[in-house]
Design a protein that fits this description.
It is a single chain. The chain is an alpha+beta fold. It is built from 2 helices and 9 strands, in the order αβαββββββββ. The protein has helices at about 1-35, 55-60; strands at about 40-50, 70-80, 85-100, 110-125, 130-150, 155, 165-175, 180-190, 195-200. It starts with a helix and ends with a strand.
């Protein structure tokens, strides 16, 4: 009799435990399905970043106060390979220039510094909710830099032994609906602060 009661009690315990695990698993799946970012999503960010430090150097070196500075115009693309991990690429373009008048000819010329960066990136997403998606990310890739002066005819690339660009960043996205949102990011390598629009497919 005691053995029968023990078997029944053990069976009831295992059944209740299984039901609890299934319920918890279903809750977790529902939570993930309600997140704004999940496995299989493709995300595109367009952003404007600040500052472009070469603008400060050019202003200080030439004494010109009127400097045309694009700062960092860029974009990121990311594919979610899991609910928390995304891989993708980043591109930024920055150009600063001055327009000056040649003292001998009276002609006007442009001189400036241009930088283009293209990186592969990986992001880890944490604390994602229905509208908010915070992440930490890192990237490594190629950096092209050029100094140009139309007046002197100089058009030289920076002589970098390793034209490598890196990025460490903390960012977040806020989605208004299933498709559109805003993004913001702070980081080292590239713009210190960047923000813009996001589209998710």
């Amino acid at each position: 009799m005691h053995k029968i009661i023990t078997v029944i009690a053990l069976g009831a315990f295992l059944f209740c435990g299984k039901q609890s695990v299934l319920a918890q698993s279903q809750n977790n799946q529902e939570f993930v399905s309600n997140n704004c970012i999940k496995n299989g999503d493709f995300i595109i960010d367009a952003s404007y970043g600040w500052p472009y430090f070469n603008a400060l150097f050019l202003t200080a070196a030439t004494g010109y106060q009127r400097v045309r500075n694009t700062n960092h115009i860029g974009g990121r693309a990311e594919y979610m390979v899991s609910d928390n991990l995304g891989i993708g690429a980043e591109f930024t373009y920055a150009d600063v220039s001055i327009r000056y008048q040649d003292g001998l000819t009276g002609n006007y010329y442009n001189a400036g510094i241009l930088k283009v960066r293209a990186l592969a990136r990986i992001n880890y997403h944490f604390g994602t909710s229905k509208n908010f998606d915070p992440y930490v990310g890192g990237g490594i890739g190629y950096k092209y830099s050029r100094v140009y002066d139309q007046g002197s005819g100089a058009d030289d690339e920076f002589l970098l032994p390793f034209p490598v660009s890196t990025r460490l960043a903390l960012g977040a996205r806020f989605f208004f609906d299933d498709t559109f949102g805003l993004n913001a990011e702070i980081g080292l390598g590239g713009p210190l602060v960047a923000a813009g629009l996001t589209v998710k497919f």
